[in-house]
Amino acid sequence: MSLIRELGAAERIYCREQTDYGNQTLVQVLIISNKNTINESKARQALMKLYQDYCPVLGYKICPSDDQTTLVYKLKDEEHAEQDLMSNFRYEQDIDWHEVFENELNIPFDNENLSRWIIINGHILIMSFHHVTVDAKNLFYIGRRYLLLCSSLTNNFRNNIFLEPMEKYLFNKYSYEKISDLELKSQPIRPNPIISRTNVRHFYFSKQILFHLIDQCHLHGIRLNSILTLITAHAYYLACNYNDEKILKIHMMVNIRPQLKLDYEQTGMFATVFDCFVNINQQSTSSIWLNAIKQHHDLHNRINEKEYIINCKNDTDLLKMINNNEYFSCDDVHFAFSNLGLLSNTNDNQIEEHYFGVSLIEQRWTSSILVGISTINDHLCFTITYNKNKIETNFIEKWIEKIYYLLEQI
Length: 410
Hints:
Elements: E1 2-6, H1 9-14, E2 25-32, H2 40-54, E3 60-64, E4 71-75, H3 78-87, E5 89-92, H4 97-105, E6 115-120, E7 124-130, H5 136-151, E8 198-205, H6 207-220, H7 224-239, E9 246-255, E10 271-280, H8 288-304, H9 307-311, H10 315-324, E11 335-342, E12 351-358, E13 369-376, E14 379-387, H11 393-409
Parallel strand pairs: 5-6, 9-11, 11-13
Antiparallel strand pairs: 1-4, 2-7, 2-12, 3-4, 6-7, 8-14, 9-10, 13-14
Helix pairs in contact: 2-3, 2-5, 7-8, 7-11
């Protein structure tokens, strides 16, 4: 097996520090048009081709370095990798894909096999990945490429992309530094070991609502992300039955790719987290658009000022922050928000809906709730993953009801 490289700082968040409690799982669901049924035999062949020609990361494993001081990626030999891929591939009929989606969020990864693939009823593709290897947008493009391969195994695609693990270039100046307090050693025992704890709820809005929002965003000169953040926050306020003024703290996942200089082509994004505070009272729902404009400009000023670089100049800073957050509590964060934006479909618009979520490990993530949004095939798709040990299902249903209500109002 050949060494690829050491894991970077952010990758260690997902990997080494969670070994006792299961690594974070990223799950994606692609709903395919019924006219594009995926054949099992072709699907298996396509998975092999995806690994061999496009995504060598599917053949990676994570293990200690030879000197036992850090974690590294190693490339399995091809036969070993192919056997592992096939052992993690399932083709199912007549099972509830919503239940499979939720179950996948609650199955941690080992460091030997970093992906799972499930096709249900020939037109639903569920992909589960160890979050250390890809982010949500990269995972979508892997899924889209895989569907194209399932349709045609000929190598006729332009711009072949060889995906590297997600954090190869996290900051403008990336360095691998030997840090004495990060030797491989057992972590402090945390309470509440990993159990089934992540629930998921997903839904989408019609193209009429989507087109109306887009038109209004163009009129106000802001991005769709800004108004969706405000709508979701105001709906949260209403679902909580607050009467007094309230400041909601949101962890906004922001694409910083435009700020990074990469030496290879990679479709996807690199996200960082910004604290965003939304001040809401009983009357503020009438001024959602004005607040969205303000939030849009405030956030983009912070991005342009490279706030994330100032806060964390290199992987050493990030690792120190991780160590300081060993007992990190996210109780003051109301929810995290990640909008992948408009996703490019296949040429024949195979993909009708797209949902994604992550396992919410106690005390090791930014919030007990993640709102994930993507737009494809004129569908505005929402996925809410939440820690069911901390959040009531009834609250999530009420929150969704208020989101619908506000979207209809504006």
